[in-house]
Amino acid sequence: MARFKHLARKLRLAAAEKTNKPIPIWVSVKTRMRVRRGFRLRNWRRSKLKNI
């Protein structure tokens, strides 16, 4: 990717970076381990972002 990024693309990448975090521990404790991982977790090699 180019070094210079447009502001809109930079904001979308920052938002994707923030959402790519595991769920808090208290969520799995509260649901008694029914929810184990976040469904939005993404790896930069496995799946790419659309429309960026």
Automatic annotation (TrEMBL):
Q: Name one GO biological process term.
A: translation
Key words, A-Z: Ribonucleoprotein, Ribosomal protein
Q: Does the keyword ATP-binding apply?
A: no
Superkingdom per UniProt: Archaea
Does Cell inner membrane show up as a keyword for this record?
Answer: no
Q: Name one GO cellular component term.
A: ribonucleoprotein complex
Which molecular function term from Gene Ontology is one that the record holds? Answer: structural constituent of ribosome
Q: Which InterPro entries match?
A: Ribosomal_eL39, Ribosomal_eL39_dom_sf
**Classification via NCBIfam families:** PRK01242.1
Family of the protein in this entry: Belongs to the eukaryotic ribosomal protein eL39 family.
Q: Which HAMAP family has this protein been placed in?
A: Ribosomal_eL39
Give the protein's recorded name. Answer: Large ribosomal subunit protein eL39
- Organism whose genome encodes this protein: Thermosphaera aggregans (strain DSM 11486 / M11TL)
Q: What lineage is this protein's organism placed in?
A: Archaea, Thermoproteota, Thermoprotei, Desulfurococcales, Desulfurococcaceae
